[in-house]
Amino acid sequence: MAEVTGAALAPVDILMVGVGGQGIILASKILAYAARSAGYDIKVSEIHGMAQRGGSVVTQVRLGERVYSPLIPEGEAHIILAFEQLEALRWLEYVKGGGTIIVNSQIIYPVPVLAGMAQYPENIIAHLSRRAHTLVVDALGKALGCGNARAANVVLLGSLARRMPIPLSYWLSAIEDCVPARYLEVNRAAFQSGYAL
Amino acid sequence: MKELMTGNEAIARGAYEHGVTVGVGYPGTPSTEILENFARYPGIKAQWAPNEKVALEVGMGASLAGARVLVTMKHVGVNVAADPLMTAAYTGVNGGLVLVSADDPGMHSSQNEQDNRFYARFARVPMFEPSDSQEALDMVGLALQVSEEFDLPVILRTTTRVAHSQSLVELKERNEVPLRPYRKNTKKWLMVPAFGRLRRQALEERLQKLKAYTETTPVNFISWGDRRVGVITSGISYQYVREVLPGASILKLGMTFPLPQGLIRQFAAGVERLLVVEELDPYIEEFVRGLGLEVTGKKIFPAWNEFTPGLVRRKLREAGIPVPSPGPGEGTAACPLGPGGEMEELPPVPGRPPVLCPGCPHRGVFYVLRKLKLLVTGDIGCYTLGGLPPLEGMDTCVCMGASIGMAHGCELADSSLARRTVAVIGDSTFFHSGITGLMHMVYNGGQGTVIILDNRTTAMTGHQEHPGTGKTLMGEPAPAVDLEALVRALGVGRVRVVDPLDIAGLTQAIQEEVAAGAPSVIVARRPCALLRRENRPPVRVDVEACTGCKTCLKLSCPAISVQDKQAAVDAIICTGCGLCVQVCKFGALKEGGENNG
Ligand SMILES: Cc1ncc(C[n+]2csc(CCOP(=O)(O)OP(=O)(O)O)c2C)c(N)n1
Ligand code: SF4
Ligand code: SF4
């Protein structure tokens, strides 16, 4: 993890992708809080509405000294944090060549696949790896290990945090600010288990 | 520390800080959260109206009585509110009135992507367009001031990427604004033709003053840079231009009606090549060309769909305008596709369309309608998803409330359709604009059947209260409309209530009512599955009995899959609604809790 210095903050663009209901909104909120403490200008863009009914969901987070567009240009995301494999593949073009993809090993079949109208692609991880440094995380397993499957989002966030130039303490207080007290312990543990990867 | 806020949160905050005491609107993406957030501030009143026309009328009344007012809606909502809007430009206001029009280029959650900037020009009311949350907050204050100073309602136009993007904003204290006393003035407020003509002329005078104002308003400004290219832009496109052409000269327009002629001429004179970068229609471009200036806009940029910074960069480059390159990717041996990012051929990526939730009460209705092979005129809400494969139980969706009128029109054109057509409409949509359609049908001797999907909420836009739910936006109890009594009062003799999770009951009701030869209403009543989670144990699959026939897949329930000739139910998301149990001819799907599976 790089030090935060007095110099201009280098831009970091993160695309968070997954399926409605996977907790991307909370993860992006914690990220934005931590980034704010680190002094970044921030823009976050997300789509509401139809996307929530189990559709594909994407949140774009942009950090820098001064951020203009809330949208990341195609091919310029430094990091994709994918909550589901197929969604990582769908947005693959967005990552900078040689960037980083952190991908949850979880697979969620979309309705066209459930209904036998389409095929879930094979070897997704291999495709991702040819394009960017790819870290596969068993977020669901880790979260269950911490006592709650719903904390998978924060496991992934922990793995992201490890690769971001933002000090650990800012992440921990951001979690405190964003997570209800009774889920705090589980989420702290989930974060640490992702951070260790 | 600055707060991170969406454009919508910032608009609510701006209204609070600048002394707005009345907020009213109808939900619609991407506008809904404005009023939901505004409702949480102290010392204000916030209300959901049954539709946008009523919302604006309530807003006008509050303005008449001297309050500062915020009225919110999505772009198509302004169509519904257009009638009061057009004449509100004549009457003007007392307390400042800001109408938020939240547009949706790219149609993320809308049936069209109309460009509401034309409404400002059409009605001749001032319009502001923020490009981030801080501007959104500040422009609410400016718009209120302009509204009061020029005696006009003001449109604040956002787009999805402004409304739903978060950025940092500085918060200030609330500035209490006293009511402006109401003084009777029929020449201003009573728009009979004689007075209307006076106000029409007064409108022209107000416009002349506004034309001077727009030249000097701080939200229209030039930043000079490289003079070879000058870009006129506004709203979110401004941010894309700043990112893609960091050195260019830019004329940023925060006030887009009326447009500043003088400023535009000054800018054009200072640059070699003039561009307009704007989403949707060539609204600014045509104005600039009308000034006799040479300008490029829609010749290179598309006139539909939303922009992205990547698209702006590509199009500029295609037009021969030098654009700096983004930093190259750092390729490594481990990632041979690194630098430049040439993509290999990827396998086809199946779509992940939105679907009705597991346990959704709408699902069974569309399953039955499809089985009965009826012509189904539909409407807008979560239930519109019932028109997509594999359910495909809806033929049309045009605008809110259209289902009933269209069903009657089918019957008028071809009487053989009378007993084969039904209209399907949600409860919130029925209150919004279905009542008049039903009144028309009954009055004109129609025999149609209307199914009202009463899931006790406005689900599509995030579960807002409405006149049928018994609660208000501010969480107070309210009288709930008696739907059955209401439709009876309209003259519908045949009214029945069914449980949409009962396929046999639904089928019988629909068959009987369609055949009845009299206007009828079926209320399919059951709360949205996300509203009250009254889940029953998940369904189990009897693997012996399952033949892999895939009939259950026709329900389009995300909890059910069939693989290798075996149905499977995802016990985590199944709500135990029981629809699939009723649909399976082999008894392979069993209610949970039974001892088999
Ligand atoms: C004029 C207009 N206003 C608002 C909207 C946004 N909108 C679409 S559907 C809907 C309400 C849906 O509620 P309901 O009819 O109860 O159906 P549900 O989603 O609950 O199934 C709203 C507010 C719109 N499309 N058009
Ligand atoms: S939110 Fe409610 S009405 Fe909408 S799809 Fe889900 S269950 Fe159905
Ligand atoms: S009971 Fe059947 S239809 Fe209902 S949610 Fe469960 S799997 Fe889906």
UniProtKB/TrEMBL annotation, chain A:
It comes from Desulfofundulus thermosubterraneus DSM 16057. This is Indolepyruvate ferredoxin oxidoreductase beta subunit. The lineage of its organism: Bacteria, Bacillati, Bacillota, Clostridia, Eubacteriales. GO terms for molecular function: oxidoreductase activity, acting on the aldehyde or oxo group of donors. It comes from the Bacteria. Keywords: Oxidoreductase, Pyruvate. InterPro entries: IorB_Oxidoreductase, Pyrv/ketoisovalerate_OxRed_cat, Pyrv_flavodox_OxRed_cen. SUPFAM superfamilies: Pyruvate-ferredoxin oxidoreductase, PFOR, domain III. PANTHER family: INDOLEPYRUVATE OXIDOREDUCTASE SUBUNIT IORB. Pfam families: POR. Residues 20-196 form the Pyruvate/ketoisovalerate oxidoreductase catalytic domain. The keyword Coiled coil does not apply.
Automatic annotation (TrEMBL), chain B:
InterPro entries: 4Fe4S_Fe-S-bd, HACL1-like, IorA, Pyrv_Fd/Flavodoxin_OxRdtase_N, THDP-binding, TPP_enzyme_TPP-bd, Transketo_C/PFOR_II. It catalyses: indole-3-pyruvate + 2 oxidized [2Fe-2S]-[ferredoxin] + CoA = (indol-3-yl)acetyl-CoA + 2 reduced [2Fe-2S]-[ferredoxin] + CO2 + H(+). SUPFAM superfamilies: Thiamin diphosphate-binding fold (THDP-binding), TK C-terminal domain-like. Keywords: 4Fe-4S, Electron transport, Iron, Iron-sulfur, Metal-binding, Oxidoreductase, Pyruvate, Transport. Its EC number is 1.2.7.8. GO terms for molecular function: 4 iron, 4 sulfur cluster binding; indolepyruvate ferredoxin oxidoreductase activity; metal ion binding; thiamine pyrophosphate binding. It is an enzyme of class 1 (oxidoreductase). It comes from the Bacteria. Binds 2 [4Fe-4S] clusters. In this family the first cluster has a non-standard and varying [4Fe-4S] binding motif CX(2)CX(2)CX(4-5)CP. This is Indolepyruvate oxidoreductase subunit IorA. It comes from Desulfofundulus thermosubterraneus DSM 16057. The lineage of its organism: Bacteria, Bacillati, Bacillota, Clostridia, Eubacteriales.
